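User: Structure with uracil, tokens only please.
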Amino acid sequence: MQRVLSQAGVASRRACEALIEEGRVEVNGRVVTRLPVFVDVSSDRIRVDGKVVSASERKLYVMLNKPARTVTTARDEPGLDRRTVFDLVDHPSGIRLFPVGRLDFETMGLLLLTNDGEMANALTHPRYGLAKTYRAIVRGRLSDDDVESIERGIYLADRKEGRSTGASRTARVQVEIIKRDRDRTTLQITLKEGRNRQVRRMLASIGYPIKKLERVAIGPLRLKGIARGAWRELSRDELRTLRRLLRSRDAGLRGPKPGRDTVDTRRSRMTHP
Ligand code: URA
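Assistant:
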């Protein structure tokens, strides 16, 4: 079920699992909440939040320059009525989009929205290790030793379903100092993991609270030419570059294929016994 939903552009596979468990998905008029659920797209009628899911929709890829004080969800938490990214992205097609990953309420910058579940999955899945770059302004003067310890990794608490499950060290990150004053530092930090509030928690844990945080790049995509709060579709070139990168990561993960530049030992053994 989650694969059908993500291919139809409802959300990423993992987010679709959550939709099912939250009781927001119906098959032939019945709410399903327990996984696995098996469906046949050709005969089953699937609805999410009451809306029929159609298997073939045009794929859209949107880049938003998210402002601060905006939530990255379609619906805010009960009792809160804050601006959401969907108040800002109103694609004329009316096609339902979903955010690829999330940015905190106060974090600004590059947020992708799409209805392509497979692409969203690849962009957020740790095995693809896509780099995300943030520009942060922190209170205090970051020393070279601090930079080194951030780069090597910081122990952060792990949480699952709201409960602490221990602590683990963050994977290696890259840090570039942009400007260092007596009482504030501007830095760029590139990471391949996507732990909850990772940049804020890393810097806060060594004594540098973040004053401003902006995502400026995701893989080859740069936040360029979009005013804060505005959005545009990805260009053909951007999409091509992104797809090429994901394909090459995918091929790398599956291991080298025998070809002109690699030796197929099975065949050579057979032809030269
Ligand atoms: N790290 C954070 O701390 N916040 C974000 O929104 C993204 C990465």
